[in-house]
């Protein structure tokens, strides 16, 4: 059985990433253009901005995973699966672009996987997954699905899964693996040379002070390291190109439904390692303030987290600072609010805890309460001066919309967060809801001031998003809101015209008054 190809690799220079990839659904005469994701992007991205981007990106990945699973449970057309594969590729391309842009600011941060858990970073190669891992995953899925579907295969039932890879597909996978292995080794060998060169004479001369001094000028050391860091960035970009190329060629081999199954497995593997890494990290996450797994419940943070108001009062009576921070910049108020312990929240505020304090990620106690769905705690904080000051509010709102977490989004808006805040692509939450949400969600945002005429960085409005995704119920809501908004704008223009064209003598009484004054002057 021969499966239709869904990807055409047009150019080997992968820096154009999405612009050079088109997906062909079976029997489709016109390729689906992936679009140029690199257009209009600045040359670099700050590390804090990259971290914020990544948090939003992960949320969008969750939404894509749900969409893929739903499609696989209720299979539609090959064109439908091809569209989903295209979305996933574009999503991955955005991450590649962001990493490359961030590498211009600090290539060591990106290549070391510093934004990941230690487990994930330890398994990374040049700031990401080894390209050969993608091929191994395909073979592993094939083996697992053959075991699971063996009886159906023996009965001659035709299945569109990794279990039915043809001989031609397997041969092409083998060719991809050989090419990828060669390129990986070339990059790894050049990296080993670069690592050895950190001990060359130029670097040693710059790092050995005569006499040694802590105040020695690090500019000399930085100058010595500059060519090494430039070389590291070049290798990193080559590694990213290879990752993109591997995905492109892999999707060229698989059918649309096979590619969808593959992507689901890849995302699930990544999320499993992330969760395991977090568990490892939590097991040894002690800090200078005494918060650790071995000392659970013995300090003011754990007491606030547990909601033991009696012990919290005793701790504060002993003179502990209610605004003291832990290694993550979190105060006891953050922890109490995040768990919805209203009595503890009230006690901490009464004792002078800073209400609008932000942790290392810019999160306030109010935001923790809103995230946890603790409306009473959130209301108390707002009544006592808490501001809806959300760091990267647009990203938070769009992430909530993309994950389908409308309860959190509604809490943010009702707390005073502007629904017209935008994410890194100038999208508002209404853009996200228009494409993936319900008419009810759209009505809520419009009712609370969301701008139906807002445009993202590509010039698309929420109406465009709803129309492109055939979200008809939401589209009707938005079109009605657009008509109302345009009528309001027209009314404002009419009012402005009337005001600008008015004369001080338009009123008859005013004319009479002026004539009377003139008559009085004549009489004088």
From TrEMBL:
Protein's gene: LOC112290629
Cross-referenced Pfam families: Ank_2, Ank_4, DOG1
Region (Disordered): 486-513
SUPFAM superfamilies, per database record: Ankyrin repeat (SSF48403)
Keyword list, A-Z: ANK repeat
Organism domain of life: Eukaryota
Domain DOG1 positions: 47-283
ANK repeats: 328-360, 361-393, 425-457
Keyword Electron transport: no
InterPro entries according to UniProt: Ankyrin_rpt, Ankyrin_rpt-contain_sf, Seed_Dev/Stress_Resp_Reg, TGA_domain
GO BP terms, alphabetized: DNA-templated transcription
Transmembrane feature ranges: none
PANTHER family per the UniProt record, alphabetical: DOG1 DOMAIN-CONTAINING PROTEIN
GO molecular function: sequence-specific DNA binding
Name listed for the protein in its UniProt record: DOG1 domain-containing protein
């Amino acid at each position: 059985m021969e499966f239709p190809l869904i990807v055409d690799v047009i150019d080997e220079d992968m820096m154009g990433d999405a612009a050079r990839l088109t997906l062909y659904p079976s029997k489709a005469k016109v390729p689906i253009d992936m679009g140029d994701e690199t257009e209009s992007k600045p040359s670099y991205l700050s590390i804090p901005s990259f971290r914020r981007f990544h948090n939003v990106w992960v949320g969008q990945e969750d939404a894509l995973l749900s969409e893929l699973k739903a499609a696989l449970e209720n299979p539609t057309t090959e064109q439908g699966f091809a569209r989903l594969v295209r979305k996933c590729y574009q999503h991955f391309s955005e991450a590649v672009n962001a990493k490359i842009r961030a590498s211009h600011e600090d290539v060591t941060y990106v290549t070391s996987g510093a934004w990941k858990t230690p487990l994930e970073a330890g398994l990374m190669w040049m700031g990401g997954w080894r390209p050969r891992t993608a091929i191994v995953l395909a073979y592993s899925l094939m083996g697992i699905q053959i075991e699971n579907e063996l009886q159906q295969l023996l009965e001659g039932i035709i299945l569109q899964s990794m279990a039915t890879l043809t001989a031609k597909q397997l041969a092409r996978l083998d060719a991809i693996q050989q090419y990828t292995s060669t390129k990986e080794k070339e990059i790894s060998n050049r990296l080993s040379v670069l690592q050895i060169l950190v001990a060359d004479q130029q670097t040693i001369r710059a790092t050995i002070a005569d006499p040694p001094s802590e105040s020695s000028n690090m500019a000399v050391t930085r100058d010595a390291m500059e060519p090494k860091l430039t070389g590291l960035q070049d290798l990193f970009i080559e590694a990213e190109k290879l990752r993109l190329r591997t995905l492109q060629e892999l999707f060229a081999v698989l059918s649309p439904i096979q590619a969808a199954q593959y992507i689901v497995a890849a995302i699930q593997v990544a999320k499993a390692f992330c969760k395991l890494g977090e568990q490892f990290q939590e097991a040894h996450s002690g800090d200078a303030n005494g918060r650790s797994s071995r000392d659970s419940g013995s300090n003011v943070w754990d007491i606030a987290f547990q909601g033991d108001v009696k012990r919290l009062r005793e701790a504060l009576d002993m003179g502990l600072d209610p605004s003291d921070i832990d290694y993550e910049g979190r105060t006891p108020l953050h922890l109490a609010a995040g768990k919805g312990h209203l009595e503890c929240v009230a006690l901490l505020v009464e004792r002078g805890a800073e209400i609008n304090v932000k942790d290392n990620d810019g999160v306030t106690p109010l935001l923790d309460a809103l995230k946890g769905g603790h409306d009473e705690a959130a209301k108390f904080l707002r009544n006592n001066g808490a501001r809806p000051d959300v760091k990267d509010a647009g990203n938070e709102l769009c992430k909530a919309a993309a994950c389908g977490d409308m309860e959190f989004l509604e809490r943010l808006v009702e707390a005073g967060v502007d629904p017209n805040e935008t994410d890194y692509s100038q999208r508002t939450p209404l853009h996200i809801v228009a494409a993936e949400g319900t008419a009810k969600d759209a009505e809520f945002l419009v009712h609370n001031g969301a701008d139906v005429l807002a445009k993202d960085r590509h010039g698309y409005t929420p109406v465009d998003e709803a129309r492109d995704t055939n979200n008809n119920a939401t589209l009707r809501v938005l079109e009605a809101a657009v008509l109302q908004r345009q009528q309001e704008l027209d009314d404002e223009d009419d009012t402005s015209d009337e005001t600008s064209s008015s004369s001080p003598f338009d009123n008859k009484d005013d004319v009479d008054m002026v004539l009377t004054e003139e008559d009085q002057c004549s009489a004088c």
